[in-house]
Recover the amino acids of this structure.
């Protein structure tokens, strides 16, 4: 099994919930009043649900070297990242939504940056392989 | 100077490298500097300015002289590890370092004093500089950029730790040990090249990570340290670390200080610590007859290292009159001649052949000593750079005649030699304290107690004197920048007497070694020239990087990854159709035009414009900013953010809206649609979409927290396909569009087109019947293809941004990026209809009111028709009221209109609307064009076509 793998994830249904109340469904907290829910979701009382399925693309970065690879562009302290971390951060010059999961990380970015991010991840992996760190 | 190896190289470590075409036997992994010395290469380069012959003078990061060129770039020889087959050559010389034609410059040294580049090349205008420039440019610089792509890669890496210790010497090791006693604390230790002496105690601590061969190049606010690792493992050239630490211990040691005398730059004149390090670490003797010149007792320990390694030390020249008994005995025991109270007056030979010394109090009584290596030990200068980078203060320590850190700075402790604690025991105690304190500050230890007292003045005192020459020749303070003591005195004489001015006037400290070799001597010469104490002279500002960083280490990934770029859902289609792609702001790439065979930009643009005016066009407007603004107070919020009244919009309708800066200038425009009483759909310009996110957020969170409103950017959710032209409806019908029957201008509705659920608005930017089709981005490629298919019989044509530009000028539409300057408000731009000043409040209202109270002299948007109808006025050209008058405005947008059969332009003109019907002059390179001022709407002024 490869040490670190990168895979574009198939399209997923995403719903933006605009409400100060966090939804109970699995969600990524993005702003004080904005959560992205994985899957369809009804609006909470006093809140709004807006489909954003087509606005993002997702990549899985998995394996024991996943954090090391992402640390080439993300300034977070991966050692101290909670196991259920999900939130917006920066990868290089773009905004991404980082989600920690059991096998590694899921990285979501705005659709328009998807091609660039795919290239960035591939290059980061290539350089990591060159480094001999694996 | 005739260096040699003190012990033979093991067969398995033997490699061959080439320097200036000459094969040299080397030990794998040693620095090229060690190889050069071991092979007796005395002259390895030429100096920066005078092209004087130079050799290795320092060790590791302290070597100031020799850069070499390899296929990968330019490197300091003392930091370049050798591998079999390495090919290097000297730089800044031709044809070779030993014989350099440009060394003739040295004969004209008197014509190149400090600041000569500020003084020379004046004369008959335009005659001398062209003469000098090519030669100066050819002589400038050290080395060349590699011509081929780098075979090795660089890696950038963010990292975090609790305590970062910078420096692997006694203080650093002690600090790392103390800081890592709590196993929960993540302690990182940075060790510079050649200092890999990590204590055994650290090796078994899993909470300690050591970065070998790494130099910290900068410390920044918030505990950020940037460090360069080179050489690296695998096929990496460099690894650039950006480390955030909760607390930091700086234990970067100190530099040895040279002396200043005539010829102190000759090959063979070196630092004593370097000569000792080459002997003890690399087993290389720098010469066969070494003389040491010292002004302190601590230097004798290094001389002892040399002797123990088998290097012949012939004499010691000690500036002090009173020399400790143990050191006198050491000299006697080893047969070393000792010259107390003497200094070096001059050095001779290339490479070094002899030196002239003289008693300090009787300079005429000179003595000449034969030697091939002169080892200088002028005391130590603490490496305070990292302490100072982020703002740490310094104080001058009279005892050691050096600047040392003045207290704690930003959870950062200096310890050991860089804190003025030079003796090993004191350095280790200081390091232990700093490690405990840093650990406590990071939350991993109890209070460290009080700092150990500075040790009593050392038994081996230092005589604070460094300039010992007789002033007859070139005595260098900064060999890397070719700055002499006389240069500094000249700077003072000419009024550049502050340390910062002196630095810039002479370039002292500005060469690749960044003053590590000579800064303290430059300060000393400056202070004496001004008859002030060094403490009063002060230091220059320490700025990162401490050591040179390769561009490749700093730069992000190359090629298409260098800068993020954004693609729409249709980019692949555009590229497949050979569209010429333009950068369109905010990292987007959009089609500029779609040339067919043999078409140039103009021909393609005219064809695309004709299609829109006469048949139908379609363009990809997906990068346009889009937002959902929802909440009970969404209307009130938009009334506040926009100067246009929007709260009275009825659901299903839209209105053109303007956002202003606080000073009344136009910030952005777009169309605001109301989807429901509590829900709006907003479009903004492409370039300002991200700025609108910030603005909406700021307004919502800070300016109007009382409003119940949420903002969601949806630019990426929706592709935006704009179908326009007199046959647009026919195309929609052919595509089986399901839209409301009474779908009027500025309406919005959900519907279906070609089997896809879409949101459609009756709005556009071309002046024709337009349908903005907002489709889920994933559906856009299929929908685009189906629309093109359906539109074939109606002449549907893909249109790029060039045609869009022409069509909107014909209609007189404002483009925020084109037609606004730093002054124009909505009234100036002819958009008064969209500024509802009677609203209670909106951002920019007071500024608009103020402008209306004083309307004269405002820049107003007008149309311009060139007198020569075939001449397209250049955008940006100045508008003059008469041929010779001052500038009164400028051309903001200009094009050729096939529809109207002539050129068109718009501009901002002072009191422009008062001049409608009059003529103006347009300033051109080498001439004037004339134009008539007209209203800025050239086509369908009543808007009948777009409403139709």
């Amino acid at each position: 099994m490869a040490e670190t793998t990168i895979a574009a994830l198939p399209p997923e249904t995403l719903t933006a919930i605009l409400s100060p109340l966090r939804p109970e469904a699995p969600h990524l907290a993005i702003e004080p009043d904005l959560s992205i829910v994985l899957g369809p979701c009804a609006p909470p009382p006093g809140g709004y649900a807006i489909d954003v399925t087509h606005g993002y693309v997702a990549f899985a970065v998995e394996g024991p070297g996943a954090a090391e690879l992402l640390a080439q562009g993300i300034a977070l302290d991966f050692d101290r990242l909670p196991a259920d971390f999900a939130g917006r951060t920066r990868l290089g010059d773009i905004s991404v939504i980082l989600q920690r999961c059991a096998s590694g990380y899921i990285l979501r970015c705005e659709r328009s940056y998807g091609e660039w991010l795919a290239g960035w991840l591939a290059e980061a992996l290539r350089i990591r392989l060159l480094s001999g760190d694996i | 100077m005739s260096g040699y190896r003190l012990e033979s190289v093991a067969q398995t470590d033997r490699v061959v490298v080439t320097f200036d075409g000459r094969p040299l036997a080397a030990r794998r992994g040693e620095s090229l500097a060690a190889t050069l010395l071991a092979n007796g290469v005395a002259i390895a380069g030429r100096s920066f300015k005078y092209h004087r012959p130079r050799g290795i003078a320092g060790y590791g990061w302290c070597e100031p002289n020799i850069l070499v060129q390899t296929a990968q770039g330019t490197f300091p020889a003392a930091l370049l590890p050798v591998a079999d087959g390495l090919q290097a050559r000297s730089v800044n010389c031709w044809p070779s370092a030993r014989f350099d034609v440009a060394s003739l410059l040295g004969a004209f040294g008197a014509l190149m004093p400090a600041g000569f580049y500020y003084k020379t090349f004046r004369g008959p205008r335009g005659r001398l500089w062209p003469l000098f420039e090519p030669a100066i440019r050819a002589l400038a610089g050290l080395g060349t950029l590699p011509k081929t792509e780098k075979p090795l890669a660089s890696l950038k890496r963010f990292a975090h730790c609790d305590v970062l210790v910078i420096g692997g010497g006694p203080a650093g090791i002690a600090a790392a040990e103390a800081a890592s006693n709590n196993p929960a604390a993540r302690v990182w230790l940075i060790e510079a090249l050649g200092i890999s002496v990590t204590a055994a105690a650290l090796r078994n601590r899993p909470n300690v990570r050591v970065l070998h061969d790494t130099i910290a190049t900068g410390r920044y606010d918030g505990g950020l340290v940037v460090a360069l690792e080179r050489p690296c493992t695998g096929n990496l050239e460099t690894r650039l670390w950006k480390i955030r630490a909760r607390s930091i211990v700086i234990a970067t040691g100190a530099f040895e200080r040279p002396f200043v005398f005539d010829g102190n730059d000759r090959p063979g004149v070196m630092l004593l610590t370097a000569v000792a390090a080459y002997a003890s670490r690399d087993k290389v003797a720098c010469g066969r007859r070494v003389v040491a010149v010292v002004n302190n007792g601590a230097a004798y320990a290094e001389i002892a290292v040399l002797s123990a390694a088998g290097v012949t030390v012939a004499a010691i020249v000690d500036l002090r009159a009173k020399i400790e008994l143990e050191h006198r005995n050491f000299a006697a025991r080893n047969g070393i001649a000792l010259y107390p109270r003497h200094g070096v007056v001059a050095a001779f030979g290339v490479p070094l052949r002899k030196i002239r010394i003289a008693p300090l109090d009787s300079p005429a009584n000179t003595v000449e000593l034969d030697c091939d290596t002169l080892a200088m030990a002028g005391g130590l200068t603490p490496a305070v750079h990292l302490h100072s980078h982020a703002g740490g203060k310094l104080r001058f320590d009279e005892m050691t005649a050096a600047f040392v850190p003045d207290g704690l700075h930003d959870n950062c402790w200096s310890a050991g030699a860089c804190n003025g604690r030079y003796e090993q025991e004191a350095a280790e105690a200081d390091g232990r304290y700093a490690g405990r304190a840093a650990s406590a500050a990071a939350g991993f230890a109890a209070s460290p107690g009080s700092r150990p007292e500075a040790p009593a003045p050392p038994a081996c005192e230092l005589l604070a004197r460094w300039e010992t020459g007789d002033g007859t020749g070139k005595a260098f303070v900064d060999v890397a920048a070719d700055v002499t003591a006389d240069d500094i005195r000249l700077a003072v004489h000419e009024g550049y007497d502050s340390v910062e001015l002196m630095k810039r006037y002479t370039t002292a400290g500005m060469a690749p070694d960044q003053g590590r070799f000579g800064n303290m001597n430059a300060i000393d010469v400056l202070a004496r020239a001004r008859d002030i104490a060094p403490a009063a002279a002060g230091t220059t500002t320490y700025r990162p990087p401490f050591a040179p960083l390769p561009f490749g280490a700093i730069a992000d990934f190359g090629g298409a990854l260098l800068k993020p770029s954004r693609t729409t859902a249709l980019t692949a289609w555009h590229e497949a159709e050979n569209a010429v792609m333009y950068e369109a702001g905010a990292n987007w790439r959009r089609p500029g035009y779609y040339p067919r065979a043999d078409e140039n930009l103009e021909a393609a643009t005219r064809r695309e414009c004709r299609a829109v005016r006469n048949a139908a066009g379609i363009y990809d407007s997906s990068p346009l900013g889009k937002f959902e603004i929802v909440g009970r107070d969404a209307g009130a919020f938009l009334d506040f953010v926009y100067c246009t009244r929007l709260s009275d919009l009825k659901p299903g309708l839209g209105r053109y809206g303007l956002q202003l800066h606080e000073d009344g200038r136009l910030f952005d425009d777009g169309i605001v649609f109301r989807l429901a009483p509590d829900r709006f759909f907003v479009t903004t310009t492409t370039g300002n979409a991200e700025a609108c996110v910030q603005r909406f957020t700021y307004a919502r969170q800070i300016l109007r927290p009382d409003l119940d409103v949420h903002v969601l950017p949806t630019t990426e959710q929706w592709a935006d396909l704009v179908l326009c032209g007199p046959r647009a409806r026919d195309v929609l019908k052919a595509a089986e569009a399901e839209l409301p029957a009474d779908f009027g201008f500025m309406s919005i509705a959900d519907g279906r087109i070609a089997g896809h659920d879409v949101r459609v608005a009756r709005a556009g930017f071309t002046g024709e019947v337009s349908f903005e089709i907002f489709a889920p981005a994933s559906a856009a490629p299929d929908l685009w293809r189906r629309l093109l298919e359906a539109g074939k019989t109606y002449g549907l044509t893909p249109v790029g941004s060039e045609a869009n530009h022409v069509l909107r000028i014909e209609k007189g539409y404002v483009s925020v990026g084109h037609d606004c300057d730093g002054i124009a408000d909505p009234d100036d731009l002819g958009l008064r209809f969209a500024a509802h000043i009677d609203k209670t409040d909106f951002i920019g209202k007071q500024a608009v009111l103020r402008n209306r109270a004083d309307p004269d002299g405002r820049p107003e948007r007008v149309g311009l028709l060139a007198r020569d109808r075939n001449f397209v006025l250049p955008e940006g050209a100045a508008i003059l009221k008469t041929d010779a008058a001052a500038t009164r405005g400028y051309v903001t947008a200009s094009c050729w209109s096939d529809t109207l059969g002539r050129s068109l332009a718009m501009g901002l003109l002072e009191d422009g609307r008062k001049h409608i019907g009059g003529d103006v002059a347009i300033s051109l390179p080498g001439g004037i064009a004339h134009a008539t001022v007209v209203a800025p709407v050239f086509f369908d002024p009543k808007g009948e076509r777009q409403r139709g």
Summary: The two ends of chain A are 12 Å apart (CA to CA). The CA atoms of residues 70 and 124 of chain A lie 8 Å apart. The mean pLDDT of chain A is 93.
